[in-house]
Amino acid sequence: MKLRHATKSDLPTLLEIHNDAVKTLAAIWTDTLETLEDRKTWFDKRIAGGFPIIVAEDENGDVLGYGSYGSFREKSGYDKTVEHSVYVTPQLRGKGAGSVLLEKLIDLAKQDGRHVLVGAIDSENKGSIRLHERYGFRITGELPQVGFKFGRWLDLTLMTLILNGDEAPTAHAHE
C-alpha cells in the first residue's frame, strides 16, 4: 500500500468513496449525495487552507481510501486543533487502509505543528473507536442524539489525541 497526496485526478474516486459512505454508513450525517463540483470545492478549500488530503493506493495505483484534516472550529483560539476524517472503499473496510491513513494524518499533523487531533465518530462505530484507541486517542466526550440518519437518532463520540507537549501560545493583548 502506497500513500501520496491526492490530486484533482483523484476526485471522481474520492467522490465515489464519499457518496458510498453517505448512502451506507452513519459516518457522514447527511443524506445528500455530493457532485463532482462539490468535491472539487471541498478539495480546493482544504488545499487553500494548507490542509492535507492523502490517498492510499494499491500496487495497481487504484485508490483504496483517503484521509484529510481541517479546521476543528473557526475561531483563532482553535488554530492548533484539527478534526480528521478517513474513508475507505467498501470492499476494503477493516483491511488496514484506515490504519495506514490515520497514522499518516497523525504524522502530518505533528509536522504541521498541530497540538490536538479530534475524531468525531458515530458512537455505534466500535471498529473506528477501537482503531483510534490503538493510536492513543481517548474518548473525551459523548454527545447523545445530536444527529439523525436512517430514521434514528445518532450519538457522537469525540476522541482526541494530544500530539505534543507544547506550551500554550503567548497571549496577545487586545487592542
TrEMBL record:
It comes from the Bacteria. Keywords: Acyltransferase, Transferase. Residues 1-159 form the N-acetyltransferase domain. Coiled coil: none annotated. GO terms for molecular function: acyltransferase activity, transferring groups other than amino-acyl groups. Pfam families: Acetyltransf_1. PROSITE patterns: GNAT. PANTHER family: N-ACETYLTRANSFERASE, UPF0039 PROTEIN C11D3.02C. This is Phosphinothricin acetyltransferase. It comes from Pseudovibrio denitrificans. The lineage of its organism: Bacteria, Pseudomonadati, Pseudomonadota, Alphaproteobacteria, Hyphomicrobiales.
